[in-house]
Structure formats: structure tokens, C-alpha cells
Amino acid sequence: MWSEEALRARLEARAAELGDKPLRQLLIEGGLGHDTLDKVPSGSRQVSTLEKMAAAVDWTLPEVMGFGVFTGLSAELSEKAFVVAERVLERAPAEVRTRQNLILLHARVYNALAARERDGRPVDDEILAAFEEMLAGEMAQSKARDGHPATATRRETATTKRSRSSAALAPTKAKN
Questions:
Q1: pLDDT of 78-98, one tens digit each?
Q2: Domain map of the chain by residue range?
């Protein structure tokens, strides 16, 4: 959801990073009016205005809009996530031990571990074991409840995913 307050905060933080000029001056030099931040549009800002804001603070459009810049994967974190994913599948029923589920598990664990790192929380053996137990438990509960593991079509809303770093696993049955 768009937030003018968050936009202003991002721009002010970026101007502080650049350090040499106040934000208003950067925006004016970028071809925007002195009151650009004070005039809040009734709907949303025009892309052309956001592009000018981005250029004024030497950013890209996605950055000014609040989307993180992809910095690549951490090989170390990916390896940890892969080990957890493999261990969970080793404990799972044979019908869900698929390459697709390995990939889904890896992605889920990697995202959760990366979020922990971003938040400054530890990613140690205890956390890895906890993720493994949680995921294995979810798979077992799904099988006990439904008579089979959850399917890949199971989805959660974006709100639920944001509110829980450990969104529900969506394993699929192996095709015969």
C-alpha cells in the first residue's frame, strides 16, 4: 500500500546519506517544485514525478518507490537453507519427495533466514533445527489432517506472508 509518509522518509534518509544538500534543494535541482512533498495528490503520484524524485537523489524508480534492490543471494545462507530443505524431505512421505518440493522448501527457508539476518537476529544451528522441526511438523500435520500432504495449490494472502516469516509449506505429491 502506498504511503506518502514512507516516501518522504525514504527521500529524507537518502538525502542524509548523500549529505551535501537538504532534500528540498535536491528536488528543486531535479526539476521539481519547492512544495512537491507538501502537495499530496488525491490519488497517487505520477510516475514522471517519482522518476524525477529518484533522479534528484541518485536512485532508481523502484528504490524511490520503496522496493528493495536485489543484491543477489548469499551462497552461505543458501547452503544452510538447502541442508534444512533436504533434511525435511528426508523425513517426509515418499510421495512428496520431489525436486519441486526441494526447491519450494529451499526458497521458503532461505527467505525466512534472510529476513532474520536483515532484522539482525541470529541464524545459527538452533534456528536451523527449529525451522526443520517446524516444517517437518507441518508436513506431518497436513498428512494426518487430510490423509495426504498439502498440495502446491495451497496459497496464503500477501498479508499473512508478511505477518509470518514462516508461511505454510506447499509440497506437492510426486507424479506417477
A1: 999 999 999 999 998 888 888
A2: 4-64, 75-163
